[in-house]
């Protein structure tokens, strides 16, 4: 039985494809986007997170930890200790939810059964299951098995990917997917590397191949002011997308600030403190760039 690591399941989502959806977030991502909305998705491993504002200093995490007595000082355990085995005992013992174990291993059957319980919402709204991350292609066997299990249960499926993976894995997953949500973060390769840590050559190559054999693709462009909102770069991206076979719908996803607290609690650096949500005028300008080459554009997921 195939199993994988997920970090969250979000029900009643209206931003991850058509209708009401249940989105499964897989853990692990090879990109490190400066604006990542799901920083807990980056590490493929489980990890301990502490929400300091919820901590009441009771020390129960220390008492529950097999190594707690050996950690110097008193009160709350530090978020990370060298001997940690990620057993989760400290998180289970925390009375306020301040200490959490992020990530769990699930089998395909267990997960598909849980997802199928939302069928009534999918049927009424034209929704379904979206598999996101992290980067789902980072767990290709689990991804394909999960898509097969959803299809066997008659559930509409969407795959939310940055396309940074083996073409064979993307191809196999797409063949089992009703809709692919394909993220493009910048068109210039150096800019892309600066913003995400990787070049976009593989991403663009995979998109060309995907568009050649899959008709249901939506392009998703996160818009982060000062990072990837250069209109010349977006115009080159729009030109590229417009020349794909079966030019896809383009979703513009304006940056929002809800991820900043998550970055802080994971101890990850970010450079977004001064960044605001794009203005309506800025969004309209970007929308025009894509519409000018004949693409259909929608703001939001
Ligand atoms: S996850 Fe287990 S080993 Fe790690 S700090 Fe918590 S109780 Fe200790
Ligand atoms: S158990 Fe929770 S609330 Fe108590 S000290 Fe540990 S993290 Fe803080």
CATH architecture of the largest domain: Alpha-Beta Barrel
| Helix run count | 11
Helix content: 25-40%
> What structural class is derived from the secondary structure elements?
alpha/beta
Describe it:
With 301 residues, the chain is α/β, with parallel strands linked by helices. The chain folds into two domains: 3-44 and 104-299, TIM Barrel (Alpha-Beta Barrel); 47-102, Alpha-Beta Plaits (2-Layer Sandwich), CATH 3.30.70. The chain is built from eleven helices and eleven strands. The strands form two sheets. The protein has a nine-stranded mixed sheet. A two-stranded antiparallel sheet has the order 3-4. Helix 3 (108-116) crosses helix 5, helix 5 (140-152) runs parallel beside helix 6 (167-174) and helix 9 packs parallel to helix 11 (280-291). The chain is globular and about 65 Å long. The two termini are 33 Å apart. The mean pLDDT is 92. Residues 50, 55-61, 76, 93-94, 96, 98-99 line the site of one iron/sulfur cluster. One iron/sulfur cluster is lined by residues 48, 64-67, 77, 81, 84-90.
Explain the layout of strands and helices:
Elements (H helix, E strand, L loop, with lengths): L2 E11 L7 E6 L20 E4 L9 H5 L24 H5 L5 E4 L1 E4 H9 L2 H7 L2 E5 L7 H13 L4 E5 L5 H8 L4 E5 L5 H8 L4 H13 L3 E7 L7 H12 L6 E6 L5 H7 L13 H12 L5 E3 L2
Parallel strand pairs: 2-6, 6-7, 7-8, 8-9, 9-10, 10-11
Antiparallel strand pairs: 1-2, 1-5, 3-4
Helix pairs in contact: 3-5, 5-6, 9-11
